[in-house]
Structure formats: structure tokens, C-alpha cells
Amino acid sequence: MSDGNVVWQGKYLSVIKQGSWEFAERKGDIDAAVIVAIDDGHLILVEQFRIPAGRRCLELPAGLVGDESQGEALTDAAARELEEETGYRPAAVEVLGEYYSSPGMTSERFTMVRATGLTRVGEGGGDDKEDITVHRVPLAELDAFVAGKRAAGVGMDSKLLALIGPRL
Fold first, then answer.
1. Strands (E), the chain
2. Any idea which of 1-15, 27-41, 46-60, 110-124 has the lowest mean pLDDT?
3. Both 82 and 146 in a single domain?
4. Could you tell me the pTM of the whole model?
5. Helix (H/G/I), strand (E/B), else coil: 33
6. What's the total number of domains in the chain?
7. Engineered SS bond to 106: which of 24, 31, 49, 116, CB 3.0-4.6 Å?
8. Residues 104 and 125 placed together within one structural domain of the fold
9. Neighbours of 56 (CB within 10 A)
């Protein structure tokens, strides 16, 4: 993607130096879906340990597009990831837009989607390599829930600002 020099390269990431900038680049131009799933006035959130943060983090459900099958549609990947992580299957997935997670440090981007018409079809929790806790939080209690998790030492994914930021 970039015109810079590769400083280091792993299986999924490269570190690039371009002029005075150093940044991480996700290899393969992989897209990710971040899911806003609301069920009867409740927001579906996930909590899991994140090695780079060194702690459990509260997040919107998310996952890579095409990591299980080539040519997978973004909305299909979002539905698959939502069910895998949370146990909820959506009737519809609507694309809300593409965003960069930290454009001064990484080329990583994601597409935010809204999942509606949810049906609980399983427990969720992710695959056997993940330890995901599913939270179904009343929208009216979201601020207090986030504050409680933060006080307990849980890290907050910045994408949560899309939901709580307008009230700041």
C-alpha cells in the first residue's frame, strides 16, 4: 500500500518508514467490520483480553472480512462474526461507513455496520482461541456500565466513543 521502506515484516503486519513517519500497515489490505448491534433497546458488547493493551478490553463486536473465505461480502462477514462472538444472528446488516482506527500510527481501517433484527442462536464467546464475554447493556445504562468497567481496570476500545461521545 505505501511507498515507504519496510523496516520489519511479520505474518500480519509490516512496519514502514516513509520520510520521517514510522507506521504499522496491515498486510494484504484486509478490511474489518465493527458491529453496532442493538437488541430491543440493549447494546451488545464484548469483553476480551487484548495482548497489546495488556488487559481485558470492552469493545463493539468485530472481525476480519474474508479471513475464512475469499471474496466474502463485508455484510456477510459482519453477520458471521456477530454470531460467532455474541451468539446473535442479525436479520439485516447496514453499512455505516469506513473509518481509520489511528491514522497517524497505522493504515488499519474498518467499516462500521449496524446489525438489526437480532435473534439469539447461541452463547457466543468466539472460537476456541478466544475468551469473549458477551454483555447485553440497556442503552439507558451504557454510560454507567462503561464507567463501572473502566473503574474495574477494563480497557476501552476507542470505537465506543461513536456511541457515548455525542453525550460528552
1. 5-9, 13-18, 21-26, 32-39, 42-50, 55-59, 62-64, 88-89, 92-100, 109-116, 119-120, 133-138, 155-156
2. 1-15
3. yes
4. 0.88
5. strand
6. 2
7. 24
8. yes
9. 17
